Amino acid sequence: MLTRYRVMAYVTAVMLLILCGCMVAKYGFDTGEDVTFAVSQAHGVLYIIYLVFAFDLGSKARWPFGKIVWILLSGTIPLAAFFVERKVVAEVKPLIGGGQPVPAKA
């Protein structure tokens, strides 16, 4: 569950940065309208997947609603998802045993 959130956080953040570059090219230099459209559509679909995974992680971690909303919105702010993802991983890893196998009880 954490891995799929992390992957989608990075994918969404990278696509948003690419989209920002495309928007600069489109509106600043009047070029790349088709590429901008394709990237915006791809980012939209990937952001929806990110929303599902982030909400699932937040509900299973029992975060307050405000925190979940902030994490969901971080996919719309350039560079924010990179920082929020680090913070989420640091908070969730101890809850799942730090990725280490939990020893069996005798």
UniProtKB/TrEMBL annotation:
Membrane-spanning segments: 7-29, 35-53, 65-84
UniProt entry tagged with the keyword Membrane: yes
Membrane topology reported for the UniProt record: Multi-pass membrane protein
Compartments it resides in: Cell membrane
Keyword entries, A-Z: Cell membrane, Membrane, Transmembrane, Transmembrane helix
Gene Ontology CC, one term: plasma membrane
DUF3817 domain ranges (all copies): 2-88
Protein name: Membrane protein
Protein species of origin: Streptomyces termitum
